[in-house]
Amino acid sequence: MAEEKKSNNFKFNPWWIYGLLIVVFLLLNVFSGSSFQEVGKITSSKFNDMLDKGKVEKVIVYNKTEAEVYLTEAAMKEKENKKIATDVLGRVNKGPHYSFEIGNDELFQKKLEEARSQNKIKTFDFKQKGEWTSILVSILPFVFIIGLWFFIMRRMSGGSGGGGGQLFNIGKSKAKLFDEKTDVKITFKDVAGLEGAKEEVQEIVEFLKNPEKYTKLGGKIPKGALLVGPPGTGKTLLAKAVAGEAKVPFFSLSGSDFVEMFVGVGASRVRDLFKQAKEKSPAIIFIDEIDAVGRARGKNNFSGSNDERENTLNQLLTEMDGFGTNTHVIVLAATNRADVLDKALMRAGRFDRQIYVDLPDVRERKEIFEVHLAPLTKVENLDLDFLAKQTPGFSGADIANVCNEAALIAARNNKEAVDKQDFLDAVDRIVGGLEKKNKIVTKEEKRAIAVHEAGHATVSWMLEHAAPLVKVTIVPRGQSLGAAWYLPEERLIVRTDQMLDEMCATMGGRAAEKVVFDKISTGALSDLEKVTKQARAMVTIYGLNEKLGNITYYDSSGQSEYNFSKPYSEETALVIDKEINALIENEYQRAIKLLQENKDKLLKLADILIEKEVIFKDDLETIFGKRPFDKSEDELVAEA
C-alpha cells in the first residue's frame, strides 16, 4: 500500500528532460570523436613538415576526407604547440591536436605507410563518422535552449513546476477560489471591534444569501464595496471573514496579480476573473491592495496612452459597470491609499459603498486583546482595560504583535504564564525598540540625558493639556538615548491650547538643557522634528493662525491642481515660515520660564533618574505633588 501511495504522489519534473538533454549532448560529443579539447587547423604542407621531423604519433582519417593528428609528448612541449597543450578545463590535451583536409585518400595512405616503415609515425587508421551524430550534435544546443525557454515561460505564466496544467496560461486569472470545497475557518466572531464595518459587509453577505428580501422592494444589490483605512486595521481580515461567512464562491487576489510585463495580459486576466465569477454567480471577488492597478489615470504618465496598467484599469471599469455586467457578482476591495485611486473607479455603480476601517478606540482594543489573548497562557484576572488604555493609536495588527512579544518575553524570563509586566515590556519594545543596556554612555552624557528627559517630565506635569506622563527612562532603546512615555487622550478634535501645551512639553527637553547647562545639544532632534510638524500643521492645515486666518493649503483628495508647485505665493511662504518659527520659539521660551521657576525640582528629578534609570508617575507626585487639574476617578466615571 505504501508503495502504491508513493507512486500516486509521483510528480514529473521537467528539469529531468533538460538534464537528460545535457547528458546526451555530452555523450554525443564523446562518441562522435568531439570533445572539449581545442583542435588546431593546419595545412597539408605543415603536416608533411611535422611528419618528416617525427612529431606525429598517430593519424586518424574520417570519411576519407578529414585527418586528425595526434602529436608526440616531445612535440607538445615545443613553444609553437603551447596553445593546444591543455584543453579549456586546464587538463593535458590528449588529442586530437590538429586537423586538415586531405586530397587523394589512396596517395595519403601510401604516405602514412611509408612514414610508419621509417618509424616516423606509430600508427594510423581510417574510420567512418556517422552524419546523424554530427547533425544531432549541431542541433542539440538549440533544442536545449528552446526547451529552457518553454520552461521559463511556463513558470512566468504561473504553470506548475510538476509538469501539469496549461503551457500558455499567462492571460488566466491568478485568483484563489474559496467555495464549499474550501474550509475557511475565519468568521465575523474572529473580527473584534469594527462594528460599523462588520455591519455593512454582513449586509453584503445577506444580499447574496437572500437577494429576494431586498429586490422585492425594488432595491438593487450593490456592485462593490471599498474597504479603506490605515495599515493593520483589519481590512483583509474582514474580507477573510466574508469568505468564511458567505456560502458563495469567493475569489481572492491582489491588485499586483494583474500587473505583468506583457502587453494585454492584465486586461486578459480581468476578463478571465469576471468570466469565472459570472459562471459561479452569485459570487464575491476580493481585490487586496487595489491601488496597484486602480491609480488615477493621466497623472505622471510619461509612457504614453497605451500604458499597460491603464488598459487593465479600463477593463476593470468595464467589467464592474458596463454592457453585459452581471449584477450577481459583488467586488470587495481594500486599500490604505484611497486618495490615489481613479475617480471613475470610486463612483457609485462600481464601488457603491466606501467602508472606512479606522484605528480601534479603547473599547475596541479591549475586544481585540480578548481575541489575541485566547491562545496565550496568562495569569488570572489580567486587567484588559488597563492594557487597552496603554495602547492608544495601536492597530489590530499592533495589538497582535504586542501579545506575541509579551509571550516571547515571558518565555525568555522562564515564566509559567504571561503577566501584566510582560505586556508593558512588549509595548516598550514595540514603541521604543530593544533595550541597549550595554551601550557605552559617559557620566556627562548620562547627566545631560537625565536633565533632558526630566525637562520633558517637569513641563508636561505643569501643563493642563499636556498628555499624562506614565514613566521616564534614560535606558537607551532603539535609536533614542532616553524617553518620556505619555498616555495621550483619545480626542476627536484638538483645540489650539491643547496643541500649544503639547508643543511646550516637547520643547521641555531642550529648554532643560539650556536652564541647567546654558548649552544645547543634538539630543533634541526628534523633538524638533515633532514640534515643527505640529506648528506647520497649525499654520498651513488647520487654520489656527491669526495672521493667515481661516485658510488651509491641504488637499485631502490628493488631486490638487498644484502638483508641482506650492499653492501660495512667495510672500505667503515668508509669512508661513515666520509664524511657524514664532510658534516654536514662544513655546520654547514658555518651557524655559516654567523650568526656571521649578529648577530645584528639575534637578532633584534628574538625580533620581540617574540613580534609578526609570521613574514612574508616583515619583513625580512625590516631588511635585498632585496636579491640580487632574480629575478624580469619580469625575472621570461621571463624564463617561
Notes on the protein architecture:
- The protein is an alpha/beta fold and 640 residues long.
- The protein folds into four domains: 33-129, Signal recognition particle alu RNA binding heterodimer, srp9/1; 176-356, P-loop containing nucleotide triphosphate hydrolases (Rossmann fold, 3-Layer(aba) Sandwich), CATH 3.40.50.300; 362-432, Helicase, Ruva Protein, domain 3, CATH 1.10.8; 443-639, Up-down Bundle (Methane Monooxygenase Hydroxylase, Chain G, domain 1), CATH 1.20.58.
- It has 24 helices and 14 strands.
- The protein has helices at 2-8, 15-31, 44-52, 73-76, 105-117, 131-156, 195-209, 212-215, 235-245, 265-279, 308-320, 343-346, 362-373, 384-389, 396-412, 420-432, 443-462, 496-506, 508-517, 525-540, 570-597, 599-612, 617-624, 633-639, and strands at 40-41, 56-62, 66-71, 98-101, 123-127, 176-178, 224-228, 250-254, 283-288, 329-335, 353-356, 469-473, 483-486, 614-616.
- Helix 13 (362-373) crosses helix 15 (396-412) and helix 19 (508-517) crosses helix 21 (570-597).
- The longest helix is centred in the C-terminal third of the chain and has 28 residues, at 570-597.
- The chain is elongated, with a radius of gyration of 39 Å.
